[in-house]
Amino acid sequence: NDQGVKETQRTNEKYSISAQGNYKLNEKHSHLFIYGSHVSDYFGAYRNESVISAGYGLRLIDRSDMWLNAEIGPGYKYFQYPDDSTEVDENGNSLAGEREGEAIALGKVDYNWQISDSARFTQLVSVEYGDTNTKTRSESAILAKINGSLQMKVAYNITHNSDVADDKENTDTETSLTLVYSF
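The structure corresponding to this sequence follows.
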């Protein structure tokens, strides 16, 4: 500012964790899954979101250099509106800070292409369909091997929520550069 004091403004703060376990039903083609995730987003359409889902998955393409999996199953989503949300319910009551939950249908498509010994392309699209909101996520990424256990990942993420407060955007985008360690 004019007094020589450095001013900063936070424009994004988001934390997320997810995990999935698969149980193979046969050698290569089908599996059962259980999936869980939690996102804490200070600037997103929802302050907190937690999802648990279980279902069936099928490998649609299975080649040595690429594969395509599809998964579908029922689930449950628990979410919290931001404290400053302008969203209102059907009676006109403010939903700021309110917590809700709903049954959802989860669908995912996961594509992986091994371009070369040291480069891989991945595409993940997931849809969480619920009565309150439908959330669609897409991640396109390229991974390049640096050495035996270290990779660099460049990714572009798109998250779209069908129903958000008037002061929020429906679509968020994110570009990331990540180091990935495999063990």
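Residues 123 and 140 are 5 Å apart (CA to CA).
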